[in-house]
Task: structure prediction
Amino acid sequence: MTAVLSGLDIAHRIEQRFPDAVAEAVPEAATLPPDRLIDVCMYLREEPELKFEFLSSLTAVDRLEYFEVVYHLTSIRLNQMTAIKVRSEDRENPKAPWVTSVWPGANVQEREAYDLMGIVFEGHPDMRRVFLWDGFDGFPLRKDYLVGPGGRFPGLERFPGEPGEPLAGRG
Result:
């Protein structure tokens, strides 16, 4: 069975190497400040007792007040996994550090988070949409996507699931 290093456990390990590098720790994950992410990720990958050489997923979460980028890490050699996060407080221009230099598999996952949430990964060599077409307006996984200036986004008459006639797009 795969061992799970909780957010509290991984935060403790990170703090031993990088004092004050953990902004918050909860059982689910440790949250890091963006300026410490790359150094901590290199440590998590290279430390012999951790060996998190595989980024199993990178995803983004819209918390309304801020965005989170969540990194799920796996050590296949040591049969353990953990999660770390980084926050972007800027809703208008969210940014996070590029970790493709640490885990090459992050490349497409960072592009997906950009495409669907609008988070720019600073330093990424190919930061462009991967699913939607160039010129697509907005970022459809944001919680405020259907709410634009002056009301609802022009593509739908109402939110799906609201009572009314069947939806017939206006765009």
Remarks:
- The first strand starts at residue 3 and ends at 4.
- The helical segments are 7-17, 37-46, 106-117.
- Strands lie at 3-4, 24-25, 30-32, 54-62, 67-75, 80-88, 95-97, 120-122, 147-148, 151-152.
